[in-house]
Write a structure and sequence with these properties.
- It holds the Pfam family DUF2231.
- The protein is elongated and about 60 Å long.
- It contains four helices and two strands, in the order ββαααα.
- α1 runs parallel beside α3 and α2 runs antiparallel to α3.
- It is mostly helical.
């Protein structure tokens, strides 16, 4: 199921989505958490992107494992990349949980002049903890995405390009 898309290994395609979507989702979540004025605009995108990180990270992880099974000689070369990808999946899972919590717990103003639709924050301490969680886990997702991509790129391209 996770081996190929057409004639290409699925992993080669999915990683490009992961490299873009995961940092965008994390940044959207961070802005949503830290800028109350924009919460009305970012509430749904932050939630959907946060949930999307789990799907993309899972497909990238599974397709990578299928790729290594199809080409066993890659095993040692991509070992670090594989370990980092596994950890990235768990960070994305935690980020999705935090995104759902932020969606439910963080208040925000309405874009309407009447103020209709304004969502009150449950409590200030809860808001601060939720904001901190979104920022910390969002930064971890970005950091681990870069580390995972770097390890994969080194496994594939090290020694292939002229200096």
């Amino acid at each position: 199921m996770f081996e190929r898309f057409g004639d290409l290994p699925l992993h080669v395609l999915v990683i490009h989505l992961a490299v873009v979507l995961l940092p965008v989702a994390a940044l959207t979540g961070i802005v949503f958490a830290l800028v109350p004025k924009w919460r009305w605009l970012l509430r749904w995108p932050a939630l959907l992107l946060g949930l999307g990180t789990v799907v993309v990270a899972f497909v990238a992880k599974e397709s990578g494992e299928a790729f290594v099974q199809a080409v066993p000689t890659l095993g040692k070369a991509v070992a670090v990349h594989e370990e980092r990808g596994d950890l990235l999946f768990w960070f994305c899972l935690i980020f999705a949980v935090v995104a759902v919590a932020a969606f439910l717990l963080l208040g925000g103003t309405s874009p309407l002049a009447s103020g209709k639709g304004t969502k009150a924050t449950k409590s200030r301490p809860l808001e601060l903890v939720t904001q901190a969680a979104v920022v910390v886990v969002g930064v971890l997702v970005i950091w681990q995405t870069v580390r995972t991509g770097d390890a994969g790129a080194k496994a594939v391209w090290d020694g292939q390009l002229p200096k």
